[in-house]
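[job 0412] stage=fold_complex status=start
inputs:
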Amino acid sequence: MKLNELSIHELRARMAAGEVGPVAACEAALAAVDARDGAVAAFLDVHRERALARARALEASGGFRALPLGGVPVAIKDNICIAGSTTTCGSRILGKYKPPYSATVVEKLDAAGAVVIGKTNLDEFAMGSSTENSGFGPTRNPWDPARAPGGSSGGSAAAVAAGMAAASLGSDTGGSIRQPASFCGVVGMKPTYGRVSRYGLVAFASSLDQIGPFTRSVCDCALVLNALCGRDPRDATSASAPVPDFTAGLGHGLKGVRLGVPWGFLGEQLDAGVRASFEAAVAAARRDGAVVEDVELPHADHGLAAYYIIANAEASANLARFDGVRYGHRSPHAQTLIDMYTKTREEGFGPEVKRRILLGTYVLSAGYYDAYYRRAQQVRSLIIADFAKAFARCDVVMLPTAPTPAFRLGEKTDDPILMYLNDVFTIPVNLAGLPGISIPCGFSPEKLPIGLQLVGRAFEEGPLLRAAAGIERLVDFPAGAVAPVVRG
Amino acid sequence: MSKIDRDVIRHLERLARIDLTPDEVGPITEQLNRIVALVERLQAVDVEGVEPTRAMSHGDAGQDLRADVVTPGLDRADVLAEAPDATAEFFRVPRVISRGEES
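[job 0412] stage=fold_complex status=done
writing structure:
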């Protein structure tokens, strides 16, 4: 098997055996980028020289051997800051912005020995479900270049799926890690709200945003998560909950694990191929010893509406900082200060971002606050209570990640509501602040990957990953598969 | 609920400090009305007596305040280097006060 297609676990084993080093791993990843990213367009910026220099330094010191991710090539979503490297958020308004500081997660990956090979494409400010809203053009799905990779972390998902990185980081506000993981046939996890520091993540919706990993296996997901978690004084919302070794017990299997399936919530919105694949995974889990319970999430249906109020209200405040004063684009066509704000934002933001800021402004404006924003926060409480009730009867909730496999590029760009429906199964998890993971569970009749989603109790990523590893072994999807990448 | 028309859009543009381009006004108005119709479904949910979730937190997150001591921030020159226009010490912006107001 090619070096760039190995799992982190296997790559590290070869390094431990002295067969390969960080330089070879880095060169293999960069060669895969050269060969494949022309067709995929996952990367906005490839840090070729910096990555090779870093790999050489790790190799020369020999220190990589003792580090948990020593010499592992990783990619970072371009809304996560790396000091001195262009960070665009997929937006023209940031342009060539080079932050003077790095995100905590980047420092943590660095400390764990990982080698950052570049920054990946996304929907502008992480607003979207297809990566088509990027100000720098869409990313293509490595399984079918006529289709979207999902989003908003589409570049990070596609980079891992196509074997251009062993792991990557994304951010997930309403499904932006799990849905592209599902579309691209990789593992993607949104940890518990507060688990991972968001210092250096450009904020979209602060009560929902969370950073998490993409990998090609559950074991690799646990390895990366080990490096990311923990309290950070620079992010007051980060939690000081103890961080266990998430790789422990991954071989335990499903015996006695209580899986709750909210059949009533899945309803009519499921594609037939997704339903068949999901039902096959539930049946396989039961045969393997899991106890499958029927659970209810009676308010989850209202998650989408509550989300589009809460997320956009928060976005309208968070994105006020892009005003042409401190960084990025400033309109050259303004005479006064107010003119500079409005023209800079007119020129710099794309239509989806404008739409969301205006909606957020609307629901927060005088006379509407109680009817929209407060009511959405109440519905959020009901969804949190739904999950609490479900977790009295099960350890892990199991549901599809997205209602369909990857759709065609352009298919949903004219209809924002159709696009938003992609996230119907992932949004409630963000609203409740719970950890969720998407793992591949099969293929559609068109040979597109399908994902299933598992949701755990707050801070119980350990049991969640153990259940995911148990199901990963049973499903009809080749372990660690790398997408074929055919040119469209 | 009221419909979002051209006047409401103009008001929102002012509040959000965003000018829509002439091409954007039509589609965004139409889409915002459809999105508002979607979120209106929440009016049917019984929320009587339900406390709103104002902020997300589990356990002690957000409660653990650091000691009240000065810690280093970002270097001023590094920060100003990214500004579209700056002096050695300040961000520079277009004139805020019109000439008539100067004394």
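[job 0412] summary: Chain B touches chain A through 60 residues (CB under 8 Å).
[job 0412] exit 0
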